[in-house]
Predict the structure.
Amino acid sequence: MANPVANVPIRIKSYDFNEQWLQLLKQHDKGSNWPIVYVLHDNENLYVGETSSAISRMNQHIQTGKRKLKKLEIILDDTFNKSAILDVEQNLIKLFNADWKYNLWNWNWGQSTSHDYYQREAYVSKIDLIWEKLKSLKLCNNSIDVLRNSDLFKYSPYNNLTEEQEEVSKSIIHDMILSLSKWEEGVSIIKWWAWTWKTIVLINIMYKLINAMNVNFDKAIDEDSDYSEYIQLIHDIKKFINEYNNWEPLKIAYVSQMDWLRNTIKFVFTQTKNWLKWNMAKWPTHIASDYCNTHKKYDIVFVDEAHRLCQYKNITWMWAYKETAEKCWMTPEDYTCLDFIMYWSKYRVLVYDDEQTVKGSDITPEQFKRSLSSVKTKNYELTTQMRCKWWKDYIDYVSDILKTKPWLQKQEMSNWYEFKLYTDADKMINKIKELDKEYGLCRNVCSESRQWKTKGKKRGEIKAENLHDIEINGKWYVRNTRVAWWLVSPNAINEIWCIHTVQWYDLNYVWLIFWKEIDYDEKTNQIITDKNVFWGEYIKKQASDKQFQEYIINAYKVIMTRWIRWCFVYAYNERLRKYLSRFIDKA
């Protein structure tokens, strides 16, 4: 039977935004008592809103600063309800932010992403059609598929949180307000599962703290009980900043050890135009150097992937590390980058998982605990993942396979995900290329277990010198970069990418190559690793055989959970291929 919601057409009506038009609106059958979504804009600025009374809301807007906006588009659907228009509004805010054609004037008040309502799927499916119609009106530049693959969409501060994420976010804000108001230091630690959007939670907290000082509530929002809890939180933040900092902005930083992740967030902060600044995204040592320049500690530091913070070991920038340690009156051998952050900040929010350390330079669990031993900590956990109800089962299954659990039985995956084992590399590469044409962001990924002959070479040089890094089935497949922003370049599908480059990137499809350094021992029923065929010196240097094995297995496990749609795997070593075939269907 046809879905009545899906079959009702979307209509968009365009008007000049002025008092004369409001008189016309009164004659519209959906003007005074019907839920709508609307877009107000001029040539540079844009605001997305929703209301159950267009006439009432536009009268309010025209009395405020929004009266400078010149054009109005009303999005109409005869089946719209309050929950549906909140969903449409939230999605359009994210899309307009990622499209970057307009300066967006929104504070996103949309509902939780976990809030369900009748026929939600049918309403969400209409977002594509609405965006297509807006694009035909020249209100946006890019297609919806392009935007959904973009960092600006994935890491947008306008993302709405799940109920669990929202609770963690609000609790952490109240924790830091309480600690800093008492002039006490503190730490919030977030433990998370894959696909629980931990980076989005950090950005959302920063967004609330920074934008609280810039939010002016329309009367309509003040009177709307749906937003009362959010408004109270913003008022709490405003009061805190007034009493704690005499209305001066809080000194806040986002810190990541990983260049790609930090640069991605820096780019997102630059493009969103919402008081999040590019220079808020910091390298860990910048926290110390900033103090030397300003003689002022950071009020709050958010550390993403805190388990990847460095120690004075297996890094290429030993001189800079030593220089930073000396600024902090510390001996580099005895202190980590986490100590630098702790020393020059007052409150810290740390996203941490000791099972995701993949290099010898990463701080150890013992070092992590020691750095926090003298401050009060609060612990939180994100468990609600943004995939489907079987996602945790999949993660557990992958973990059990790599840990060679003796009791493990093959699980039927076809009802969960397309999790396939390929034995023909050519077939798999051709499949990935086909999928990339349809979905984009489909990539081939391998470890650092081969000599990187193409390092530093331009594509022309690689071709002229016939340089290749990986040989499979008698053929060579080029993988010539670890620079993450090339991951979205046109030639990226023809390259094989490093695990450590794509570790934090959400790909649509992943083909993961288990390369020469990882194998299976039939006698002991153990996954084994071989340092001698591994070329990543800064991973294996000073690492024991046991540590090296943990790094390698952790890295493969992480990549097996970084896809959005499906994961395909290929094993170079035949024994490992046979072992994996016991648990993964062959393609």
The first helix runs from residue 19 to 25.
